[in-house]
From TrEMBL, chain A:
GO terms for molecular function: porin activity; protein transmembrane transporter activity. This is Mitochondrial import receptor subunit TOM40-1. Residues 1-41 are annotated as: Disordered. GO terms for biological process: monoatomic ion transport; protein import into mitochondrial matrix.
UniProtKB/TrEMBL annotation, chain B:
It is found in: Mitochondrion outer membrane. It comes from the Eukaryota. The keyword Ribosomal protein does not apply. This is Uncharacterized protein. It holds the Pfam family Tom22.
Amino acid sequence: MGGVLSFAAAPPPPLPPSAADRLPVEDTHKDDQSEKVEKPAGEVDWLNLPCPTSYDELQREAMMSLKPELFEGFRFDFTKPLNTKFSLSHSVYMGALEMPSQSPETFKVPTAHYEFGANFLDPKCMLIGRILTDGRMSARVKYDISENLTMKINAQLTNEAHFSQGMFNFDYKGRDFRAQFQFANNAFYGGNYIQSVSPHLALGGEVFWLGHQRKSGLGLAARYNTDKIIMTGQLASTGLLALSYVHRASEKATFATDFMYNLANREATSSIGYDYLLRQCRLRGKIDSNGTVAAYLEERINLGVNFLLSAELDHWKKDYKFGFGLSVGEF
Amino acid sequence: MKRVLQLETRLPLTLGKNRSFSKFDRVMAPGNSSGSESKRKAMALPGAGSDGVLARLGNTVRQSEVFHKGKRAISNTARFSKKIIWSTGKAAWIAGTTFLVVGLPLLIEIDRDAQLAELEGHQASLLGAPSQPPGLAAMK
């Protein structure tokens, strides 16, 4: 669940110098980033570089540890498998919804909803649908068109105007690179590409164009990845710099920290957290530079029965959120 | 001259408590503040001469520079210490609640995990299974 991508094989043994003349073969894969590969070869096997993580999920490990799904109130999730591929899910949530407001104080509105979901999971095809009592609906489709090409669809329908969204992604997974093309409503087009440049380092870039707002942007990213540590850095032309560092101290413990700087409003935030995966529970905790402290505990009471505890303290705003829940049945 | 200025700035604070301020003024700054002296004398007059030795002693103590300095120091210390106590209290509250949320569950869970591992190791040795360190059994 820690989800740290570790390479199955250790870096291959150094090749004889004759490997260097095979480099141009590999270069056909890396059209735009080939200049990054021209490093002194001979120490690593450039032909067997591992496939990098996709651009969207570069910071997934840090996010997993630092951004648990905190909630306030009570929630109950029930998943019932009908057969090996098909399952239904029911979920009830009762709690408070925070209303956005200009004043520093937060307004909370009590809310409750029921969510019904249907999942179809197959190695080649994944269909997930969710519908809420307040009329929101979301659907997710993932379909492997071929071994290397995957199509993903994300859609959200609401009864309010202009909040419905749809997004199509096409992922191409090469041997040591990944490319993605995405388009969404509001004339959003984007593409990204990430390439392994050494057994541990991957570099990537993205371009996007928001047609309705007539905005475009560029992004650059780097990810350094070993069994123990993961370092990522992302820079976007919107003025956002995001750095993250994940350290796997042991089988059970992972520590993560991240730093985010927004040039537009000159705000920097950083947080540090831990993620313990024990036999009976998973516990995540973090401390934020905004004065927020949060912890999220998933305790396994019985097989398939999980007890959730969520706590979030905002010391500066004096906003305290606590939640508990149960989740019965697993996927 | 400087001292007189100091005294005058201090005057509004101490006027109510020190009834015979004029005497002190005369002693400390002869001839310098003659303009305002008569006014102060008039204010200070009732009860100045008619007290006993103890009262006079008390007056001289109250009028001395050391007394004022001390009093000011005490009131400052009181104010600062109040502030410090309040802020340390707040810091302690933040640290304590932070520990309750982030630290305590971790300690409890790690302890529970260790206990569970111990129990499993114990059971494994009872059943006669090949003895295995509990940590390895946990990893699977």
